[in-house]
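Q: What structure does this chain adopt?
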Amino acid sequence: MARISLTPVKCFRLNHPAEVRLGPEGVAGNRLFFLVGGDGERLRSSRTPWPVVVSAEYDASSDSLAMTFPGGIEVSASAAATGEELECEIGKRPQRVALVPGPWDELLSKLGGRQVRLARVEREGAAMVEPVTIVSLASVARAAREAGVASLDSRRFRTLFELDGATEHEEDDWAGRYVRVGESVVEVGDPVIRCAVTTRDPDTGERDLDVLGLIASYRGRGEDGEIFFARYARVAEPGVVRVGDPVEAL
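A:
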């Protein structure tokens, strides 16, 4: 295991803990929140690059959320969803969510240049297609070679687990198989459909490289024109996963 990446708020800068507990619905608090506009529509990362400059930490024990904005501005408050209830489409599924009012509302709206509010899903994992995403660093290195660059920041793909020791796109060969990751076991599933977030610098959100085009150029597209990179997985056996843990296809 080379790196673990997660964020309590979709679209925000990724955090990289040394270890996580993988439960049936993934890592507790991961993508538990997301942003909506004044019209109640979800702000999608593919079309909304600015949130990547904000970081957040969620404390499940106190059900509180802290955010850090550019310039070092920090705010924290209860993460309870006590505001208006909405219906949003997440992962092509309509879901009931509720707003989380707090000191972040004004700061997010100022940064986004319009009204922006924080929403929370009803249950863990509801904001994700599957609780786990995996990619091998060899696959990222292959994409870098195709792009003609020395390296490619793997954070562009925003996967939960980044694996070393695997061959390029070996994770695709694991489809339908069980893989031991640290103390847990996951069942590898469908490929991840990629969006425009991969074309942006992970620190600034600025578009700087046509990652989608270069992946399509050597991997092709799906029947509906989708571009695939990395894999989804379900949790078969919960457990602790640490950076440095072995990863083994069973």
